[in-house]
Amino acid sequence: MPRTKKPITEKKPKASSKKRAVVAVDKKNMLFPIWSVKGEKTGRISVPKDVFGAPYNIQLVSQAIRVFRINQQEGSAGTKTRGMVEGSTRKIYRQKGTGRARHGGIRAPIFVGGGIVFGPQPKDIHKNLPKKMKRKALASALSWAAANNKIKIIDGLSELPVKTKAFDQMLKNIQVSNRILFVYSKETESVVRAVRNMRDVTVRPFDSLNTFDVMTHAHTVFAKDALVSFIERYMKK
């Protein structure tokens, strides 16, 4: 009897049990869950898709990071020429009769303590990135972080004692660790004292948030008031 082949059936992909933290509301807005300091979800906040739901542009993000890192360099290395070093302009010895080569000043490059020839001089290595490109790069980075569940919004930080131990426990409650970026505002500025000596936490005010910080940290934690202030500032421009 010839063997009959079994019909080929396509396997359906298993539904992922991991729930998405970000929920789309309409074409312009999306919802983020709000966490308490105890690690409980207390509600949701609406955020614009233009900031947290933009398409990821890897070329623009890479360019923004490169410009940011270049601008962190000082470029202030400099040496003194013979006209800059201290020393007398008197002729160090007579022109003839000594048996030595003819020399004028002690500040010549061949003498110890003299000037440097063709040494490095201070130069401006600063690079500019247009504001629109900078804003789009930041929105792209935040959108990438939101799509990968790397953004947390915390409410109730005023109830937290200003102690490193309390803040560390709060981070454990919301299940974030290693390379954390904490974004604060004036209302939550006191929290900075609690986290400034934590190795894996970087603090930034909402108006200094940049693409480099978002992309180089595993989690971005917003204080609720800082997120509101950041969105208002971003949408005004």
UniProtKB/TrEMBL annotation:
<comment type="similarity">
    <text>Belongs to the universal ribosomal protein uL4 family.</text>
</comment>
<dbReference type="Pfam" id="PF00573">
    <property type="entry name" value="Ribosomal_L4"/>
</dbReference>
<dbReference type="InterPro" id="IPR023574">
    <property type="entry name" value="Ribosomal_uL4_dom_sf"/>
</dbReference>
<keyword id="KW-0689">Ribosomal protein</keyword>
<dbReference type="InterPro" id="IPR013005">
    <property type="entry name" value="Ribosomal_uL4-like"/>
</dbReference>
<protein>
    <recommendedName>
        <fullName>Large ribosomal subunit protein uL4</fullName>
    </recommendedName>
</protein>
<keyword id="KW-0699">rRNA-binding</keyword>
<keyword id="KW-0687">Ribonucleoprotein</keyword>
<dbReference type="GO" id="GO:1990904">
    <property type="term" value="C:ribonucleoprotein complex"/>
</dbReference>
<comment type="function">
    <text>One of the primary rRNA binding proteins, this protein initially binds near the 5'-end of the 23S rRNA. It is important during the early stages of 50S assembly. It makes multiple contacts with different domains of the 23S rRNA in the assembled 50S subunit and ribosome.</text>
</comment>
<dbReference type="GO" id="GO:0006412">
    <property type="term" value="P:translation"/>
</dbReference>
<comment type="subunit">
    <text>Part of the 50S ribosomal subunit.</text>
</comment>
<keyword id="KW-0694">RNA-binding</keyword>
<comment type="function">
    <text>Forms part of the polypeptide exit tunnel.</text>
</comment>
<dbReference type="GO" id="GO:0019843">
    <property type="term" value="F:rRNA binding"/>
</dbReference>
<dbReference type="GO" id="GO:0005840">
    <property type="term" value="C:ribosome"/>
</dbReference>
<dbReference type="InterPro" id="IPR002136">
    <property type="entry name" value="Ribosomal_uL4"/>
</dbReference>
<dbReference type="GO" id="GO:0003735">
    <property type="term" value="F:structural constituent of ribosome"/>
</dbReference>
